[in-house]
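Intended use. Records like the one below are meant for learning the mapping from a protein sequence to its folded structure. Do not use them to infer anything beyond what is encoded.
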Amino acid sequence: MKTPVAGILIALVMLIPISSDAWAWGDQGQKVICEIAFRLVQPNTRAEIRKLIGTDEQFNTFSDSCTWPDHPRQRASEHFVNLPRDADGLHSETCPGVSACVVTAIRKDFEVLSFNNASQAQKLASLKFLGHWVGDIHQPLLHVSFEDDRGGNNVLVTGECGSNLHSAWDTCLVLKAVGDDADQAATELMKTVTPARIESWTHSAPMEWANESFAIAEQARTEYCIRQDASCDHPAGKVNIDAAYVAVNTPIVREQLQKAGVRLAHMLDVALGK
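Structure written out for the chain above:
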């Protein structure tokens, strides 16, 4: 039976503003990203991650711990960055119109994780947050998009992937692209993570990652953005998620998961691999 406190917490979670009420990549995507990162980091970094996760009361693996900021939702305003309908992307590491967003969250928790005098508890929390934020910023729908349609939550879909465009991208397309076994998915995705791709993907900053995701959200194949001059408008009707839609977007989903894992590994090596 739920306690009164638990009931209050559930009620508070349900009152989170509608622009921040969906999970990034679903749990499966987050686990895959963090598993890739864990396998790619240097041995001393991996040892530090194991030591930190070893003190966690809830999780036994880093990949599972990356779902923590969603259950229940923590630091809700930092899971995404909203842009105007006529935006062409971010032009600085600040958040448009607000003090905090996923771009600043990455920097904040990277700094805590890098700080020698931070406590183990602080570092553990920032490790789990950082893994999650890097996943968030690589998910085009909701996390780098528009507030007025709640990142695709108000864009209805038909066909193979549930009720709205955001859920199609955060869960359905991921499962179709990599399956429901996070370890196996990481193994498969890492087969095409070459040294050249690692070199290319790690020479960039969170602002650029956000702009990559925003560019995907605006692509015609995503069917999220109907271009009207400088404005990226809401689709007029339902988006049909058929076999052709899945086929054309599966390579994008797979590469975004790969990029996120590679970039997270690089950040963890810099922060912990001393």
